[in-house]
Amino acid sequence: MYAAIEATDLRKTYPPGVRALDGMSVSVPAGTIFGLLGPNGAGKSTTVKVLSSLSRPDSGTALVAGIDVLAEPVRVRHAIGVVGQKHGADPEATGCENLVLQGQFYGLGGRELRARAARSLERFGLGEAADRPVKTYSGGMQRRLDIAMGLLHRPQVLFLDEPTTGLDPEARSDMWREIERLAGEEQMTILLTTHYMEEADKLASQLAIVDRGRVVVKGTPDQLKSGLEGDTIQIELPDREDAGRVEALERVGGLGQVMLDGRMVRARVRDGSAAIPVVLAALETQGVRATSVTVARPTLDDVYLRHAGRAFQQAESEPEEVAA
Amino acid sequence: MTAARQCWQVYLRGVRAFVRQPAYLGMTLVQPIIWLLLFGALFKSVARIPGFDSGSYIDFLTPGVVVMLAVFSAGWTGMGFIEDINGGVMDRMLASPVWRGALNAGTVAYGALTVVVQTAVIVLLGLALGANYRGGTVGVLLLILLAALLGTTFASLSNGVAMLARQRETLIGAVTFVQLPLTFLSAALMQRNLVPAWIRTVSKFNPVNWAVEAGRSAAMQKIDWGLVGSRIGLLVALALLSAAFATRAFSKYQRSL
Fold first, then answer.
1. pTM of the predicted structure, to 2 decimals
2. Nearest Cα to B70, choosing from B118, B14, B30, B18?
3. Where in the sequence is the domain holding A119, given as residue range(s)?
4. What domain range is B106 assigned to?
5. Contact A239, A278 (CB under 8 A)
6. Which residue of chain B comes nearest to A101, CA vs CA?
7. Sign of the C-alpha dihedral computed for residues A104, A110, A112 and A117 taken in this order
8. B interface residues, A as partner, C-beta within 8 Å
9. Which residue among A149, A277, A278, B109 is least enclosed by CB atoms within 10 Å?
10. A251: CATH
11. Cis ω before B32 (30° cut-off from 0)
């Protein structure tokens, strides 16, 4: 299938040496939703900035809608819609004024533009708020306006940078429905970044997990999860332990990928509930008592853990990407 | 064509925000009104210094305050860009194919409009205080035009610095650093032949002084067309140069993203 986005080996270092992209490559088939999943600071936003011509990489190549982003940024800008992480609308202007100004930026104008803006406001449930200043909108309404602005010129490729961050659960599920509709009915190619596992799982037909500026694994959400056989077993210990004392677990039959992370031990096993007594007994022989044991079906969190070598939450709490 | 329409739309965005908060105009006028009243009273006896040409200090001061106001008002234009950067509006605009020059020109035009409205108020206040506009309506309009032209230069510079610095504090520092020295190194408050020679020399190269001397000649004396015309030419050239600087600042900003 024709790739609407083809980025190869993007590298970018911010002064004073923060490596935001370190060999990032993504390929997105036309008409699909592609998810970039990763913790804050993984390089998701930088990837979007580079692919949307806002920022330039130090090296690498990028084609969007068949156009070379580095050689012809203006043509790319006509072909794409961008919804950034922050609200992009002017809070002092009304929803309608924002849309009309946005349309002018894309060379639209006149009666056609006004009609298109009005239709777009209706479609996103903002018809009644059309003539109110955006600063009076709720978070969900502002986000819908952001998307309406990104779509006004009917782009072939839409970039959504963390579209649901900061939304309440109801607004989030509305947004999910809208995004699914765009890809389904309108055949749009969507590149979505998120740090919500659930969001990536639900929306993306293809998914790349990113960490430290590069893709660590990609596939469909199901492929990624089924790549992890069996269950995750998670054991909480009363104190921090050194690796030596949980080594015994690696000798337990059927248990794999044992990982110690502070007071948490995680391991993969075919049948979680059957393994619990064996695991506890093995720890007992080392004099380690567990505080709690949980068994779970594999999630994308486990996929991340497996490929990035650390837990998602842990990566999230590390220093943020240099905001720029 | 598209570029002109985009300029116009960016300009309208500013005008609409301005119209929605008319109180803002009042606030921006407090300072120049105080200058006019305070300096007018403080330096009243300056008019009695031998060699001082104007009949009254208020005649002399009013065009000076009009030009000062242009510098002080237009200097803050870049604050809008900093708000746009912080709010995500700037990145959204730059991800679109909008002509970068329009983002600057539109806001600068709006800044110039603000200067025109503000200076018109000050001109009327001067009239109430007894200023004698010997240049008539044409002279006063030329004074306002000169102030607006100077304003466009400072508005573009402010926009450019805002895009490069991206921080409110830096812009405030840069603007306040420049405003007062440029004003005092001009004939805004004191006649040039009564100031030290070095200030006279420096003021020849000070665009604020170009606007002050030409504006004063136009509004208060018999219009010296040679002076007024040449200064308008210089200020137009400077306005274009600073607009080019501000437009280039967008790509500098994008390179840092």
1. 0.86
2. B118
3. 3-225
4. 2-255
5. no
6. B9
7. positive
8. 2, 5-6, 9-10, 13, 16-17, 20, 84, 87-89, 91-98, 254-257
9. A277
10. 3.30.70.2470
11. no
